[in-house]
Amino acid sequence: MTPLEWHYQKLCQTFNASVCVESIFNTDIDSAHKVAHKHNKSQKWQNQKLKRAQNSQQNKSASLAQATYTKAFSPLLGTKADSIALHPRGMKLDSIQFSQLVDSVRQSKADLRFFIAGPYGFDDEFISKTSAISLSDLTFSHKIVRVVLLEQIYRALSIIHHHPYHK
Protein backbone atom coordinates (compact mmCIF):
# COMPACT_ATOMS: atom_id res chain seq x y z
CA MET A 1 0.00 0.00 0.00
CA THR A 2 1.36 3.40 -0.93
CA PRO A 3 1.57 6.22 1.62
CA LEU A 4 -1.28 8.05 -0.11
CA GLU A 5 -3.49 4.95 -0.05
CA TRP A 6 -2.68 4.50 3.63
CA HIS A 7 -3.52 8.17 4.25
CA TYR A 8 -7.04 7.86 2.79
CA GLN A 9 -7.58 4.52 4.49
CA LYS A 10 -6.82 6.17 7.86
CA LEU A 11 -9.06 9.15 7.04
CA CYS A 12 -11.96 6.78 6.32
CA GLN A 13 -11.51 5.29 9.79
CA THR A 14 -12.52 8.64 11.30
CA PHE A 15 -16.03 7.78 10.06
CA ASN A 16 -15.86 4.23 11.48
CA ALA A 17 -15.35 2.86 7.99
CA SER A 18 -12.99 -0.02 7.59
CA VAL A 19 -11.36 0.08 4.16
CA CYS A 20 -9.37 -2.97 3.12
CA VAL A 21 -7.26 -2.90 -0.02
CA GLU A 22 -6.48 -6.32 -1.37
CA SER A 23 -4.41 -6.95 -4.44
CA ILE A 24 -4.95 -10.20 -6.27
CA PHE A 25 -2.16 -10.87 -8.68
CA ASN A 26 -1.77 -14.61 -8.88
CA THR A 27 0.34 -16.68 -11.26
CA ASP A 28 -2.60 -17.21 -13.66
CA ILE A 29 -3.05 -13.45 -14.03
CA ASP A 30 0.70 -12.96 -14.43
CA SER A 31 0.82 -15.62 -17.17
CA ALA A 32 -2.19 -14.14 -18.99
CA HIS A 33 -0.56 -10.70 -18.94
CA LYS A 34 2.68 -12.09 -20.36
CA VAL A 35 0.87 -13.91 -23.16
CA ALA A 36 -1.26 -10.87 -24.03
CA HIS A 37 1.74 -8.52 -23.86
CA LYS A 38 3.80 -10.78 -26.09
CA HIS A 39 1.06 -10.77 -28.73
CA ASN A 40 0.56 -7.01 -28.48
CA LYS A 41 4.14 -6.28 -29.55
CA SER A 42 4.04 -5.64 -33.25
CA GLN A 43 6.71 -5.36 -35.87
CA LYS A 44 6.82 -2.20 -37.96
CA TRP A 45 6.75 -3.84 -41.40
CA GLN A 46 4.05 -6.44 -41.78
CA ASN A 47 1.74 -7.33 -44.61
CA GLN A 48 -2.04 -7.02 -44.17
CA LYS A 49 -2.68 -10.77 -43.86
CA LEU A 50 -0.15 -11.07 -41.05
CA LYS A 51 -1.65 -8.01 -39.31
CA ARG A 52 -5.16 -9.56 -39.40
CA ALA A 53 -3.83 -12.81 -37.94
CA GLN A 54 -1.98 -10.89 -35.25
CA ASN A 55 -5.10 -8.84 -34.37
CA SER A 56 -7.06 -12.07 -34.00
CA GLN A 57 -4.37 -13.44 -31.67
CA GLN A 58 -4.36 -10.18 -29.65
CA ASN A 59 -8.12 -10.47 -29.13
CA LYS A 60 -7.73 -14.07 -27.94
CA SER A 61 -4.95 -13.03 -25.56
CA ALA A 62 -7.02 -10.16 -24.12
CA SER A 63 -9.97 -12.54 -23.70
CA LEU A 64 -7.71 -14.97 -21.85
CA ALA A 65 -6.57 -12.19 -19.52
CA GLN A 66 -10.18 -11.10 -18.90
CA ALA A 67 -11.27 -14.67 -18.17
CA THR A 68 -8.39 -14.96 -15.70
CA TYR A 69 -9.56 -11.82 -13.86
CA THR A 70 -13.09 -13.22 -13.71
CA LYS A 71 -11.84 -16.51 -12.28
CA ALA A 72 -9.74 -14.71 -9.64
CA PHE A 73 -12.38 -12.16 -8.61
CA SER A 74 -15.61 -14.21 -8.81
CA PRO A 75 -15.21 -15.84 -5.37
CA LEU A 76 -15.07 -12.34 -3.86
CA LEU A 77 -18.32 -11.12 -5.40
CA GLY A 78 -21.18 -10.20 -3.11
CA THR A 79 -24.56 -9.12 -4.43
CA LYS A 80 -24.88 -6.96 -7.52
CA ALA A 81 -25.71 -3.99 -5.25
CA ASP A 82 -22.53 -4.21 -3.17
CA SER A 83 -20.07 -5.35 -5.86
CA ILE A 84 -18.82 -2.44 -7.95
CA ALA A 85 -16.58 -2.97 -10.97
CA LEU A 86 -14.64 0.00 -12.26
CA HIS A 87 -15.24 -0.06 -15.99
CA PRO A 88 -14.97 2.54 -18.79
CA ARG A 89 -18.57 1.91 -19.86
CA GLY A 90 -19.91 1.99 -16.30
CA MET A 91 -22.28 4.57 -14.87
CA LYS A 92 -20.80 8.03 -14.59
CA LEU A 93 -21.48 9.44 -11.13
CA ASP A 94 -20.71 12.77 -9.55
CA SER A 95 -19.50 12.89 -5.94
CA ILE A 96 -23.03 13.28 -4.51
CA GLN A 97 -24.34 10.29 -6.49
CA PHE A 98 -21.30 8.24 -5.49
CA SER A 99 -21.90 9.11 -1.82
CA GLN A 100 -25.53 7.98 -2.20
CA LEU A 101 -24.32 4.66 -3.60
CA VAL A 102 -21.89 4.24 -0.70
CA ASP A 103 -24.57 5.25 1.81
CA SER A 104 -27.18 2.82 0.48
CA VAL A 105 -24.78 -0.11 0.86
CA ARG A 106 -23.59 1.21 4.25
CA GLN A 107 -27.17 1.35 5.54
CA SER A 108 -27.80 -2.22 4.42
CA LYS A 109 -24.82 -3.26 6.60
CA ALA A 110 -23.20 -5.01 3.63
CA ASP A 111 -19.54 -4.81 2.72
CA LEU A 112 -18.97 -2.65 -0.34
CA ARG A 113 -16.52 -4.25 -2.76
CA PHE A 114 -14.78 -2.44 -5.59
CA PHE A 115 -13.03 -4.37 -8.34
CA ILE A 116 -10.27 -2.92 -10.52
CA ALA A 117 -9.29 -4.99 -13.54
CA GLY A 118 -5.92 -5.26 -15.15
CA PRO A 119 -5.01 -3.61 -18.47
CA TYR A 120 -7.46 -5.71 -20.52
CA GLY A 121 -10.53 -4.92 -18.42
CA PHE A 122 -13.28 -7.27 -17.29
CA ASP A 123 -15.24 -9.63 -19.51
CA ASP A 124 -18.99 -9.19 -19.94
CA GLU A 125 -19.72 -12.16 -17.65
CA PHE A 126 -18.06 -10.44 -14.69
CA ILE A 127 -19.57 -7.02 -15.44
CA SER A 128 -23.06 -8.56 -15.52
CA LYS A 129 -22.63 -9.66 -11.89
CA THR A 130 -21.71 -6.18 -10.65
CA SER A 131 -22.84 -2.59 -10.68
CA ALA A 132 -20.26 -0.99 -12.95
CA ILE A 133 -19.15 2.61 -12.54
CA SER A 134 -16.61 4.74 -14.36
CA LEU A 135 -14.33 7.10 -12.46
CA SER A 136 -13.40 9.03 -15.59
CA ASP A 137 -13.25 8.94 -19.37
CA LEU A 138 -9.48 9.06 -18.94
CA THR A 139 -7.34 5.95 -18.60
CA PHE A 140 -5.33 5.68 -15.39
CA SER A 141 -2.67 3.28 -14.19
CA HIS A 142 -3.80 0.72 -11.64
CA LYS A 143 -1.94 2.51 -8.84
CA ILE A 144 -3.53 5.87 -9.64
CA VAL A 145 -7.02 4.34 -9.78
CA ARG A 146 -6.58 2.93 -6.29
CA VAL A 147 -5.70 6.37 -4.90
CA VAL A 148 -8.54 8.09 -6.77
CA LEU A 149 -11.02 5.46 -5.57
CA LEU A 150 -9.88 5.75 -1.94
CA GLU A 151 -10.11 9.54 -2.11
CA GLN A 152 -13.63 9.29 -3.53
CA ILE A 153 -14.65 6.86 -0.78
CA TYR A 154 -13.37 9.34 1.80
CA ARG A 155 -15.16 12.18 0.00
CA ALA A 156 -18.39 10.13 -0.02
CA LEU A 157 -18.09 9.49 3.72
CA SER A 158 -17.46 13.21 4.24
CA ILE A 159 -20.63 14.05 2.33
CA ILE A 160 -22.66 11.46 4.25
CA HIS A 161 -21.43 12.83 7.60
CA HIS A 162 -21.64 16.52 6.55
CA HIS A 163 -17.91 16.94 7.03
CA PRO A 164 -16.39 20.12 5.52
CA TYR A 165 -13.86 18.17 3.40
CA HIS A 166 -16.36 18.19 0.53
CA LYS A 167 -17.37 21.69 -0.50
TrEMBL record:
The keyword Transferase applies. Transmembrane segments: none annotated. GO terms for biological process: methylation; rRNA processing. It comes from the Bacteria. Gene3D superfamilies: 3.40.1280.10. CDD domains: RlmH-like. It holds the Pfam family SPOUT_MTase. Keywords: Methyltransferase, S-adenosyl-L-methionine, Transferase. GO terms for molecular function: methyltransferase activity. Belongs to the RNA methyltransferase RlmH family. This is rRNA large subunit m3Psi methyltransferase RlmH. It comes from Helicobacter macacae MIT 99-5501.
